[in-house]
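To fix ideas, we now present one chain and its tokenised fold:
***
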Amino acid sequence: MSCVNRFAVLLFAFAGVAAADTAPWQFGTPVTVADARPGVFHHLESAGRRSIAVSGDAVAVVWEDNRDGTPRAYVAFRTGAASDFQGMRLSGEGEAYEPAVTGLENGRFVFGWEEAGQAWVRSGGPLGLDPPVRLGREAGAQVTLARGERGVYVAWAKQTGKVMAIHVARLTPGRDGAPITFSRPVIVTPQLQVEQLYPALAVLKSATVVAWEDRRHGHTVIYAAQSRDDRRFSAARRVNEQLPRRSTTFGRGTGAARVVLARLGAERAAAVWLDKRDFEGGYDIYAAVTTDAGRLFGKNLPVVDDFGRSFGQWHAALAVDSQGRQVCVWDDDRDGSPDLWFSWRSDGPWTENLGVPGASGPELETSPVLAFDDQGGLHLAWIEQVAAGGPTRLRYRHAPVAQTRP
């Protein structure tokens, strides 16, 4: 990197940190959720980026790590005014990956994960976990969860013939320690024998919306569909815009991956995803909103600002506050090492990208997840690595008060 470019990067990073002071949220002191141990690596990789949730005064963070030599799923809770998180194991004796969580009421949650090649769910909270339940005997992976007036729903990639196809079921958490029950899983695209991966969910007042990665065109595209009766889904509609093919070298088309959905009011949903339409610069983040309960997503808007598009983005997460403000957070290395950045919007374009205070510097800050509480407070968790190749730890920050909408 030339001296001029290095100076530009440093100047931009300084401006981003300074501008963060004017953001609508004032972040508190970082808290460690799970500490670093030699040889232990943490992963926040749930489908739909559903690795953190809030219920009442309780916050739950779920992840996978290899502390005993085998990948397993864990959860940690923070309640009330407590300063620390208390953790417990979520999965059983098999190898487990990509746990997800959504909040219920009164400090309780629903969890999902992959274990021994199958999909599992269970409910619980800081006082303990209810029995785990397997979502069928078929191979399953990439579980995600969402809750709304219509109930609690789970989506996952389930073995269907020779491919993994997205299925959705409604969950009914048990009472007094009883296990979860679930409705008959509904396949989203019944006759389509094509690989589908990494679903995301949003539960609206009148419909359940699911989006996913789909390879029907020979390259990865984001599709979405909705169901109003829990028995069938509408025809799948493309979310990321179809662009003219600009290269014969990079396959059949540009790729899109890891879609995230968030409810936006009663009948709208917002989506963000990683998009390689500018294939020479790596993935950028794009966003779209549906105004018809999930049948059709509108114009794609770039989340990353002009400077950031020169760098690849990863791990885009999305949440919506009580004012309808959409917030996206991700990691990129525009300042020389992976750091967390965020942007937000209400009705207009996405704001300038700002560095997350306390999640930048020489350490490697990656894999953010976020959620809002009922008071508009923002809860953020991420992975911190002191040095490349070294052990990781999980970090958390809370921005307790949202200021007036800018």
